[in-house]
Amino acid sequence: MAMGCDGDYFRKSLPLGVSLSGVPLTIAAWFYADDDTSNKVFAALGNSSTTHTFMLRLNSSGVFHVVARSGTWAQGSYSASDHQTGVWHHGCGVFGSNTSRYAYLDGVAGGENTTSSTPAGMDRIAVGTRASTGTEHMDGAVAQVGFWNAALDASEVAALAKGYTPDQVRPDSLVFYYPLDNPAGSHDIMDSDTTTDTGSPVYTFVNPNIIQGKPLTARANLTRLPGF
User: Fold this and answer.
1) Disulfide-capable partner of 128 in 5, 69, 104, 201 (CB 3.0 to 4.6 Å)?
2) Residue 184: pLDDT above 70?
3) What pLDDT does 157 receive?
4) Which uninterrupted H or E stretch holds 159?
5) How many CB atoms lie within 10 A of CB 106?
């Protein structure tokens, strides 16, 4: 299952002591876009009272865009190819430092963006919208959302795009994991917390093919995955 959203979303304040304050950072999710006529944010980490944020966004040109915004200025990496509406895709943003960010669409990296951007005051995560303003709502569905306090490497991102769930890839650095398969609400596997939805998200979309198995903690394990 997945969270079907048509302007529906959820946001969650970061609990005290959670280590997710900025770079290095990876955000990943499966997404299904119903349209691409305007900007759509499907996962974000941000500051609840400013525009400082890290986010995964589909822009109005049909391109997957990974953004680091500090104040007025937003810096981002674009996917190497366009996404399609009506199709499940995997999107991943890897923020290695304040001068390095990559957009991966279906496991393939776009060009590195190296312009400095230093988002600060991270205190909220969001799925289906921006973390601060609650705008640019996703129209479609989102599934298997993960937030890591580390920069995943290319083989790890490829494993996620292959269908391995976030808790199998670098699990020691995984801070939040939302499968979005709970009809009762948005459930985080990492701390058994349930957030409050805004709107009426529908948990009936067909999920992409997901591979269950043992955690994958090292590159050596990744290279031995069947068919990978």
Assistant:
1) 5
2) no
3) 97
4) helix 154-162
5) 20
Round to whole Å and give the CA distance between 149 and 170: 10
Total residue count of the chain as it appears in this document = 228
Which tokens belong to 132? 């601060």
Residue 18 inside a domain? The answer is: yes
Instruction: Identify which of 114-123, 133-142, 204-213 has the greatest average pLDDT.
Output: 114-123
CB atoms near residue 115 (< 10 Å): 13
What total of structural domains would you count in the chain?
1
Domain residues for 188?
3-222
- For residue range 33-62, list pLDDT tens digits in order: 888 788 888 899 988 888 899 999 998 788
- CATH code for the domain of 29: 2.60.120.200
Q: Which residue has the tokens 């890839």?
A: 169
Say what the alpha-carbon torsion angle 35, 128, 174, 119 is, to the nearest 10 degrees. 100
Residue 228 in any domain: the answer is no
